[in-house]
Amino acid sequence: MPQPDTFRPEAGMPLISVQNVQKSYGAFRVLHNVSLSVARGEKIVVLGPSGSGKSTLIRCFNRIEPHDAGTIVIDGATIDAAIELTRLRCMVGLVFQNYNLFPHLTVLENCTLSPRVVKKLGRAEAEALAMNFLHKVNIADQAGKYPIQLSGGQQQRAAIARALCMQPSVMLFDEPTAALDPEAVSGIVDIIDSLAADGITTIAVTHDMGFARRIADRILFMDQGRVLEDAPPEAFFTTPQTERARAFLSQML
Ligand code: ADP
Ligand code: MG
After folding, report:
1. Ligand closest to CA 59
2. pLDDT per residue over 19-43, tens digit each?
C-alpha cells in the first residue's frame, strides 16, 4: 500500500529544526540543550509547569528572546543575530497572552499596519487582505471597532488575524485560551485546525489540557528548561514516560 503520510520530522526537511539551544537570564539557565523538530502543518502543544521555559522557548523562535547557543532553523532560515527581524516576524507570527493590539487603531487598522509598512501594500490591497483574514476568524463585522470595544475572545481573534496578514508559515500562541470561555476556546480550536489545513504550523503553550488534547498532533513536555517528553497526545496522556510528567498530569487531571 502506498503511504501518503510519510512526511515526518525525521524524514526529509523539518520546517523547524532546533538543536542544543541554550539560554540564560544572567546566571540562571532557562533552556538547557533543547532539541526538537517540527514538520510543516504540524500542531504542537508545549506543556509543563510554570517557569519551565515554555514561553522563553517559543519566544526564541521569532527572536523576541535571542538564544545564547545552539541553532534554530525555520523554513531554511537560520535564526541568529544576522537575520532581518522584520522578515522573521512576518514568517513567525506570535499571538501574545494579552493580545497586544494597538489601542488607538481600529481592528482593521491593526491588521493593515504591518502589511502597508513592511510589505508596502497599498491601502486597498492591505484592507482586502485584512478583511479576508477577519472573515476567516469570524470577526469581519468588528473591523471598524477599537480593541477596547471587543470582548477578550474577539481581541484574540483580531490578534490572530493581524498575525495572519503577514502570511506566516508558523504561528506561535502563548496560553491562547487562558482568558476565554468554552465557546471561545472552541473557536480557537477551529481556527488552529483551519491554519493547519492551509499548511501553517502551530506551536501553542497552554495549561489547558482539554485544549491540548483537541489540537495537538504532538505534545512537548518541558520541565526546568528541558524537553522531557515528545510524544503523540494519546501516548503522553495515557503513558507518560517520566516521573515528572506523571506528577504534572496527576495535578492537572
Ligand atoms: P513558562 O512559560 O514555562 O512559565 P518562562 O519561559 O516564562 O516559563 O520562564 C522560565 C524561567 O525564566 C522562569 O524562572 C522565569 O522567572 C525566568 N524568566 C523569564 N523571563 C525572564 C526575564 N526576562 N528575565 C529574567 N528571568 C526571566
Ligand atoms: Mg509562559
Report:
1. 1
2. 999 999 999 999 999 999 999 999 9
**pTM value?**
0.92
Q: Kindly state if the Cβ of 245 falls inside 6 Å of ligand 1.
A: no
C-beta of 25 in contact with ligand 1 (< 6 A): yes
Contacts of 190 (CB under 8 A, 6+ apart): none
Residue nearest to atom 7 of ligand 1 (CA): 55
Tell me the per-residue pLDDT of 100-131, one tens digit each, with 9 for 90 and over.
899 999 999 999 999 999 999 999 999 999 99
The pairs formed by 23-32 with CB atoms below 8 angstroms and a separation of 24 or more are 23/53, 23/56, 23/60, 23/65, 23/66, 23/67, 23/68, 24/68, 29/225, 30/56, 30/225, 31/56, 31/57, 31/60, 31/67, 31/225, 32/224, 32/225, 32/226
Complex-level ipTM: 0.97
Environment class of residue 10 by beta-carbon count within 10 Å: exposed (0-12), middle (13-18) or buried (19+)?
Answer: exposed
